[in-house]
Amino acid sequence: MHNNEWSLVFFTLISQLSVGILLMFSFLHFVHPNTGYSISIWWKSPEVVVLVLLGIAGIISLLHLGKPMNAPNSINNFMGSWISKEILSLGFLVASVIVLFLIRWVILSPIWLINAMLIVSSIAGFVFIYSMSRIYTIATIPSWDTWYTPVSFFFSVILFGITAIIFMQSQGIGNWSNVFQTKSLILILIVFLLIQMGTNAFHQYQLSSFENLGIEPISFTKGMYFSLFMIRTILLFVLAIGFIFIYIYLPQLNIGSVFVILLMLAIISQEFIGRMMFYQSYFRIGV
Amino acid sequence: MKRLAFYYDSSMCSGCKTCQIACKDKNDSPLGVNWRRVYEVTGGDWIKQNNAWKSEVYAYNVSMACNHCEDPICVKNCPTHALYKREDGIVQIDADKCIGCKYCAWVCPYGAPQFDATKGVMTKCDMCADYVDEGKNPSCVDSCPMRTFDFGDYDELKEKYGGEAHIYPLPKQELTNPSILIKAHKDAKRAANENPEVSNMEEVKYA
User: Which of A119, A245, B135, B196 has its CA at 20 to 30 Å from residue A26's CA atom?
Assistant: First the structure.
């Protein structure tokens, strides 16, 4: 992996985390309004957390540029370039979340307006992640130009979103006592972890069938890439087992335990490994 | 709209890399930035026939720079419009607009755009646009001691030489419709079936 791609790894992961929190917050707001985010000022307004994360992601993204001072030019080609579309949708997302924050906590608008703005912000988040994934679907890079790229980007958003909410609840923020809600979230998480394992394996199978199309040797079935794939698969398996354990023993289990924190760290680790694998899988047609 | 293009005779090329050096010299490119590169394709093996060993090895060179494609994937994907196409078909970079995101280097199947760390922007072959404006040939074309290059309007070159754009290890021309015509080496077809290695990758990357 080239040095400049580290900043892209962190930019992508933090962006996915922030959009995941936003989407999960919207989901819970509409499906289960009495979520009980009232203990911490931070979680009283998750918009602040989303904005801080997007701000950090934006600053990190500048690190991979050769000329960060020219960064405003990056929206010039919004009709043709997915990078321009991504930056514009990021701007729209930030603006919509700021408006959401203002109408919830400063202007104290009616609930219908808050609901409408929450939907607008969620759509902006969705468009942002979609644009981000399209940057990597390039005809000259066959290993990226597959169904897996957009799917993996949205899977990361969902996993991060659910994980953040469960983590928050495990730390006493929100309404952990609502066992039904938490169990539902854990169940969804387990299902996504298993689907993730399946899609990763199928994608790995497809990659291994690629023939040499460029001058660089391709090695998806050995070396660093394959080692990372195996580590990630093991982590996903352990996570699925761990969350099944929590699901079964939820009311009795001390959910704020080290066990839960370790599982959260494992989720972050496997996502991090996933991004590293993604950049490792880069190979281009031609010379 | 005019379409300026290179013609390159791979069957004649000795791999001396004078074109590469002429380009580097003309454009004052730093170490690691090679707008023109010469790839050495080597393949085949020695085959045992009874008590004798027969050579079935082959080698040929491919000199490659930006091909100023008709459908340039770099221009299409550049977020800043720093990459643009001139009226005569030359694809250029406006360094004042470039953010140095390196996306063009990711997508170009010819490895043409290259990052100049000293300037913080992408750089690439501009067909020696200043020479072209003066009615001269690009420096690589005139420097070749084997006279493997020619330069001019695509249609005129096509009529004069024929040629193709897709020889191993270059990508299929449908991807970007490159403005290059190549006379293939006799072993290029065999190489396309065998996927031999490019034996001077280190030189290509870091020279």
Answer: A245
Q: Which among B79, B97, B121 has the least Cβ separation from residue A81?
A: B79
Dump pLDDT digits (tens) for B77-119.
Answer: 999 999 999 999 999 999 999 999 999 999 999 999 999 999 9
Q: CA torsion sign, A141 to A147 to A148 to A154?
A: positive
Tell me the whole-structure pTM to 2 decimals.
Answer: 0.90
CB contact under 8 A, B109 and A284: yes
Q: Pairing between strand B197-198 and B180-183?
A: unpaired
C-alpha–C-alpha distance, residues A83 and A131, integer Å:
7
Residue numbers in chain A where pLDDT is lower than 50: 36-42, 176
Residue in chain A lying closest to B41 (CA) = A215
Which one, of A110, A157, A161, A101, lies nearest residue A129 by Cα? A157
CB contact under 8 A, A81 and B101: no
Strands B149-153, B4-9: pairing is antiparallel
Place of tokens 């990078």: A83
Pick the closest to residue B21 from B40, B37, B5, B41 (CA basis). B37
